[in-house]
Amino acid sequence: MNVQVRIPGTEHWTSKGDVRLFLWNKVAGDPANTRGTILFVHGSSMASQPTFDLEVPGRPDSSVMEYFAKQGYDTWCVDMEGYGRSTKDRDNNAPIAFGADDCFAAATYIQKLRGPRPLLVHGISSGALRAALFAERPVRGVRPPARRPRKIAGKQGPECGVRGRGRDRESAAGQQVERPVVALDR
Predict the structure, then answer these.
(1) Which of 58, 65, 105, 148 is the most buried (most CB within 10 A)?
(2) pLDDT tens digits for 94-104?
């Protein structure tokens, strides 16, 4: 029998005002020596752990967190407000904007714990919308995505005039902070 050894996970907690948010982390080895950091964002059907860290006997790749942790990534997931182990006492219908706020709280916690580094964000279903809104919002201390000039009918594209804006945005420590890279799932 081929027994698969699972990477142990650790629970973490952060806050968004009065709301407590549950985070789950899996990393193989030293978190300072990973290939990157990934935050997984669940949709509206299920909480984060059963979505991203599912254990199915005989199917070792059922957990996407486990898979990417074994590839050298520091993997995280967060229960949105009203889901899983996060606060459920407010009357809300899980609007996308609340989820983007939850992503920000999670990303801030991870950055304080691990230090400033790029964050990959992967959302599924409505989690993709939460992740996209989180990445789209202007955030103090977060550098906007790089823009490249492009040619349109032989001329430079309209976005060329806005290149370089936002470079003066710095964190409180005076460091540039990387904007999250978002992977959207259909």
Answers:
(1) 65
(2) 899 999 999 99
Provide mean pLDDT across the span 18-37: 96
* Residue located via tokens 């977060």: 142
**Whole-number Å distance between alpha carbons of 186 and 182:** 13
63 and 91 Cβ atoms separated by less than 8 Å: no
Domain 9-145+163-184 indexed as CATH 3.40.50.1820: yes
Choose between 113 and 150: higher pLDDT: 113
Per the CB < 8 A criterion, the answer to whether 88 and 50 are in contact is no
Domain range annotation of the chain: 9-145+163-184
- What does the alpha-carbon distance between residue 79 and residue 63 come to, in Å, rounded to a whole number? 16
pTM value is 0.75
- List CB contacts of 99: < 8 A, sequence separation 6 or more: 41, 80, 81, 126, 127, 129, 130, 133, 134
Percentage of residues in the chain having pLDDT higher than 70: 72
Q: Hey, CA dihedral for 78, 81, 83, 89, is it positive or negative?
A: positive
Backbone angles phi, psi at 100, to 5 degrees: -65, -40
The residues, ordered by sequence, that sit 6+ positions from 120 with a Cβ below 8 Å of its Cβ are: 36, 37, 38, 39, 73, 180, 181, 182, 183
